[in-house]
Write a structure and sequence with these properties.
Layout lengths: L1 H17 L4 H13 L6 H5 L6 H38 L18 H14 L4 E2 L5 E3 H6 L24 E3 L4 H10 L4 E10 L11 E11 L4 H16 L5 E8 L2 E10 L5 H6 L5 E10 L1 H6 L8 E8 H9 L6 H4 L2 H4 L7
Parallel strand pairs: 1-4
Antiparallel strand pairs: 2-3, 4-5, 5-9, 6-7, 7-8, 8-9
Helix pairs in contact: 1-4, 2-4, 5-11
Bound molecules: phenylalanine (PHE).
Length: 345
């Protein structure tokens, strides 16, 4: 009797090992038959009653063998099913075919130029400050030594916000100087890139919106020579190691003395003549020693601290660098224009 049962289990193991279901459904039927909740192995365990004690252990092992055989078989079947599925998916796919090219965009020339300027100043310890474009009169003008009746306000035609004589669109990034100096103790060493607005007629040379980068360095004993050296470093990083600069006296209400910086562009062709007005020199930024009154306006002790500031238009630098003759091209977002900058740094 016992031997019969043993033979039955052995036959079952043979059966499991020989089984060769194919396809999803047959494999599922196999699972149900041998591993499902009503599988055929379970009732055999019950037969243990009819096995003499000394062979009970052996019997248990044998039945377990059957169960393990079923599990191993099912696992192998499933793996091969997945493989077949993957092979199916790959059918008709040519792995050696070249990929579809992905259309890649490009950075805007103003962004490229702005990032380059930021990078140059970050290397010598300036940190970036970004501030609001909607400013109040105090930060944009009054703190910067330009009271209401000051004629210098006419230099920059201002957009005031509707129903407000206080809020305006900042006309220069110099407003960030006031923001920084009122909240931070010196030493201050920042550059502030951003958009500015002026109510100007749009032409090839000027626009009602453009970008500037402001620089501000306040500390003890900061001198005009420090400013000149910093700006020479900038010009040579931006326009090449042999670039020459010159500082011409100028006027800004918030700096004293003030200067405008030119770089030597050269006079090789007709375009050089036109853009440099025949001098070979190109103005690229305004700068100067921060007026002590501006320091005081912002709560900084002008007997202890001094500093310099500078500001430049980014579009202008981009136009020079890429020889773009019309500023409006920078705001139209014509893809034919923009994609020419794909390989720019
Ligand atoms: N804010 C000036 C302008 O917009 C530039 C400037 C900045 C000049 C800082 C001197 C110092 O023209």
């Amino acid at each position: 009797m016992a031997q019969e049962i043993f033979d039955k289990v052995e036959a079952l193991i043979q059966e499991i090992q020989a089984a060769n279901p194919t396809g999803k459904e047959e494999i599922e039927a196999f699972r149900i038959q041998y591993l499902g909740s009503k599988n055929v192995i379970k009732p055999i365990f019950g037969e243990i009653r009819n096995i003499p004690n000394e062979r009970k252990k052996e019997f248990g092992q044998k039945v377990n063998e059957a169960k393990q055989a079923a599990e191993a078989k099912f696992e192998a079947l499933q793996t091969s099913l997945e493989q077949a599925h993957a092979e199916d998916l790959m059918k008709g796919i040519d792995l050696s075919a070249p990929g579809e090219p992905m259309p890649v965009g490009s950075h805007h020339p103003v962004s490229i130029t702005m990032n380059r300027i930021i990078d140059i100043f970050e290397r010598i310890g300036f940190t970036v400050e970004e501030e609001r474009e909607i400013e109040d009169d105090w930060h944009n003008f009054t703190a910067m030594n330009t009271p209401e009746d000051h004629p210098a306000r006419d230099m920059q035609d201002t957009y005031y916000l509707k129903d407000s004589t206080v809020n305006l669109l900042r006309t220069h990034t110099s407003s960030v100087q006031a923001r920084c100096m009122t909240r931070q103790e010196p030493p201050i060493r920042i550059i502030a890139p951003g958009r500015v607005y002026r109510n100007e007629t749009i032409s090839a040379r000027s626009h009602c919106q453009f970008h500037q980068v402001e620089g501000l360095y306040i500390g003890e004993g900061v001198s005009f020579a420090d400013m000149k050296q910093t700006l020479l470093y900038f010009a040579q990083e931006m326009y090449g190691p042999d670039t020459r600069i010159r500082l011409r006296p100028s006027y800004f209400p918030f700096t004293e003395p003030s200067a405008e910086m030119d770089v030597y562009w050269g006079l090789k062709d007709e375009i050089d003549y036109r853009i440099t007005k025949g001098t070979g020199w190109l103005e690229i930024l305004g700068c100067g020693m921060v007026d002590p009154q501006v320091l005081e306006n912002c709560g900084i002790d002008s007997t202890k601290y001094s500093g310099f500031a500078f500001g430049m238009g980014i579009e202008r630098q981009a136009m020079l660098k890429y020889r773009i003759s019309d500023i409006r091209l920078l705001f139209e977002n014509d893809v034919r224009f923009l994609k020419q900058f794909k390989s720019a740094f």
